[in-house]
Amino acid sequence: MTVVAAALVDGDGRVLLQQRSPGRSMAGLWEFPGGKVEQGELPETALTRELKEELGIDTDAAHLAPATFASADVAGRHMLLLLYLCREWHGEPRPLDAAGLKWARPEEMRSLAMPPADVPLVRLLEVLIPAF
Ligand SMILES: Nc1nc2c([nH]c(=O)n2[C@H]2C[C@H](O)[C@@H](COP(=O)(O)OP(=O)(O)OP(=O)(O)O)O2)c(=O)[nH]1
Question: Which InterPro entries match (predicted)?
Answer without folding.
Answer: MutT-like, Nudix_hydrolase, NUDIX_hydrolase-like_dom_sf, NUDIX_hydrolase_CS, NUDIX_hydrolase_dom
